[in-house]
Amino acid sequence: MILVATTGGGSLDRYSQELATRLDIPKLYTDVYQSIAERFNVPIASPAAASALYGDVRFVQKLRGLDGPVHLPNHHLGRYGRFLSVPYLITVHDLIRYFDMHRKRPLIHRPNLRDRAYLRLDIAGIRAATAIIAVSHTTKYDLVEHLGIPEDRIHVVYEGADHQRFRPAEARPFEFPYILFVGSEHPRKNLGTLFQAFARLKQDGAYPELKLVKVGKPGGSEDRFRERTLRQLRQLGIESDVILAGFVADEDLPAYYSGAVCTVMPSLYEGFGLPVVEAMACGSPVIVSSSGSLPEVAGDAALVVSPRDVEGLKSAMSRLLQDPRLAGELRTRGLERASLFDWDRAARETEMVYQEVELQLSTRGGAPLSTFEPVGGV
Question: Residues 93, 78: contact at Cβ < 8 Å?
């Protein structure tokens, strides 16, 4: 098996890089996914689109020179799968962009003509893969339900956290109490509900020093995500109580998690939700929405609220501010839960999928694989 390792700084790149450091197999390092992520919503007839197409052709040429099965580590590399001359395995993290092609309200951004063409190639590449790794049972269900993939071709292997880095820290980035959100400002992150719940919490007057800290970039250039965020804050009158911290390096994130009253992830959809695991690993009490994979990942170690329930989210945050015992219980459960999600474990289970793929290719000529269960599934 040859692993394609993407060298960008996003969460999907991190997945391939964490596996690359742990798997003793050949790797092909590339920045191709960074180029994909930066070119959503580029017009089909533009110099940027032409440049991207040239890069795509060169990357396909590299792939076609590989000798042996290939692991494509994210679903947007599916667009290259149909051009491969060897069997391939693909990891699917979510179907968010697929949903954006078919739903009225986009989770990120409604795709233009060029995006739709590439996304259709992605889907065709997923369907043609010899086997698929899904990062959660939620994503597996979506693949079966929406793409018609047979269950026995999909193997669930959870993502992990670097527990040498993400663990309780004594350092604190701020002296005041704060509620933490980590992620982009895409519509799917449901920041509007969080802002409304936080505004109601502040209106009670019981927490004058409390802030909301938002860590992470706004999102890609395909829409004005930050402009929407600032407009929501102005309308609610909470600009001075919300800190948009921007990008924070991994080595500094544990302090943000550890110092928070709680970490809130109110997303409308997640294929996995890595910040939930990182927060739990750092001892932060967690509140998640009941949508997507978040309840699956958090288990009984988080408070769960309906994603559109503003009053319910306000109540959950208030409970953690007022009840140290509940906060302590969630910290304990969270640390235990987070230990189940580990990159070493993810690499071992991925390697077992490789072995299954190679065995089936050698005995059945590339026929679809039998069901694989991860070791000690969470």
Answer: no
- CA atoms in the 13 A half-sphere facing the CB of 15: 26
Q: For residues 215 and 230, is the Cβ–Cβ distance under 8 A?
A: no
Q: Kind of pairing, strands 242-246 and 70-72?
A: unpaired
Helix axes 310-322, 191-203, angle to 10 degrees: 60
CA separation for the pair 168, 280 (Å, rounded): 9
Q: With cut-offs at 50, 70 and 90, classify the pLDDT of residue 113.
A: very high
Q: What is the pLDDT of residues 181-193, one digit of tens each?
A: 999 999 999 999 9
Residue written as tokens 């599934």? Answer: 377
Helices marked H in 11-94 — which ranges?
11-22, 32-38, 47-64
Q: What domains appear along the chain, each with residue ranges and CATH number?
A: 2-160+343-364 (3.40.50.2000), 178-338 (3.40.50.2000)
The first and second tokens of residue 295, run together, are 């309840």
Q: Six-digit token pair at 309?
A: 């329930």
User: Which candidate, 258, 292, 287, places its Cα nearest to that of 273?
Assistant: 292
pLDDT tens for each residue of 28-49: 999 888 888 888 888 888 998 8
Backbone angles phi, psi at 249, to 5 degrees: -65, 150
What pLDDT score does 362 carry?
82
Q: Cα 356 from chain centroid?
A: 26
For 164-226, give the DSSP string: TTSS--S--S-SS-EEEEES---GGG-HHHHHHHHHHHHHTSS-TT-EEEEES----TTS-HH
- Is residue 135 within 8 A of residue 93, CB to CB? The reply is yes
Structure tokens at 343: 């990159």
